[in-house]
Amino acid sequence: MTEIQSITARRVWDSRGRPTVEADVKLANGVLGRAIAPAGASRGTREAIERRDGGTRLGGRDVQGALTSVRDRIAPALAGMEANDQAAVDAAILALDPSPLKDTLGGNATVAVSLAVLHAAAADAGKPLWRHVADEFGRTPSLPLPEIQIFGGGAHAGRRVDIQDFMVMVPGASSFDEVLEVTSEIYFAAGEIMAAKGRVAGVADEGGWWPVFDSNEEALETLVAAIEKAGEKPGERVVISLDIAASEFGGEGRYRLALEDREMDSAGQIEMLGRWLDAYPIASIEDPLAEDDPEGMAEFTRRFGDRVQIIGDDYLVTNAVLVREAAEQGACNAVLIKVNQAGTVSESIETFRAADGLGWGSVVSARSGETEDVSISHLATGLGGGQLKVGSFSRSERMVKWNECLRIQDELGEAAFVGGAPLARTWWGARRKAGV
Length: 436
Ligand code: PGA
Ligand code: ZN
Prior knowledge:
Elements: E1 4-13, E2 19-27, E3 32-36, H1 64-78, H2 86-96, H3 107-125, H4 129-136, E4 145-152, E5 165-169, H5 176-196, H6 216-229, E6 239-243, E7 250-251, E8 254-257, E9 262-265, H7 266-279, E10 282-286, H8 294-304, E11 309-312, H9 320-329, E12 334-337, H10 339-342, H11 345-357, E13 361-365, H12 375-383, E14 387-391, H13 396-412, H14 427-433
Parallel strand pairs: 4-14, 6-10, 10-11, 11-12, 12-13, 13-14
Antiparallel strand pairs: 1-2, 2-3, 4-5, 5-6, 7-8, 8-9
The structure holds 2-phosphoglycolic acid (PGA) and zinc ion (ZN).
Zinc ion (ZN) is lined by residues 243, 245, 286-287, 313.
């Protein structure tokens, strides 16, 4: 009996104290599935719309309209459907709102319900969510390689620096547990370096240290110093990953670094990033060019795609069609998977499959506005072979996702950690292969 009996929605609050949508899906046999919609701050223009009420209350951010979408439109349409037929459920949601950006129902309404249905089906099958995902979608589960933020920036830190995420990855670790231990050492080493300079001023939205720097590159230098202070040789067990989030400071062919009072064209942006790739052990870079700069993205990929992972986030918005288009244009070699950018589980998995079929990497990702919801830890594990980006190494809306992976590790075993495989085609992988 996996029949959906009822769906309810309530307003809950995210890590920034903003309202968001929680959905409860109850099956006829009493089994419950529950999920919460996350919220982005540096959003792509082509991602599913977060339906907000507007007006003056709660800064216009209330979600009563999205709750009404769930109660009055989605719940009646899904009642009586089989929860374990995710494709049919998501198709029914799409039929209610065929607009490409889901602006009628709201992507925050659709994603909460779609994920809650997935949870209900897993609970009904008596399986942890990661196992259900692996079984349903024919994947071999593995614990993902994390990208963990050390300094926040961009829209997550009052634009104190232009670049959004300064992260580390530990592809040389032998277990997920070891990744977290090494990252914790680097996180606190970075905090000590900032404190010694009199520069600790709390944390940014995703828990990374607040970026008090005189230039964007100073953040990179400090990150390298933190890796060394933690006893690691940068580029060996640990590498750097950046989310440039270039659409936040670039567009219409111009890129303006406010911190450095510097303006460049697309070629200048590519030159600057190329210098960083030469100077620092960066193995992965996200949205290096703005979402309206496909030529720049293709040129960047042509020049550096055989050295680094190039992830499209705002550029691809978890959309399978955009992934295939980008591949034809030679832009990017990996995709960020944010379920709320697509709006449903099925569309997210379609995007994952499109990327996988192209031999691309994929990174399941949180948003800057998060909650206690741990669905993405399970999705990244269940889909297998991937990476997981959750933000930093503080604040419980972040730690709950890392800690959930440790619980999964107990079930799956340490050997199920994917390790450095996602970076095999970067300079790091080449070095590893050569035994350097
Ligand atoms: P967002 O940013 O959740 O604020 O949109 C996350 C990202 O750019 O990866
Ligand atoms: Zn991003």
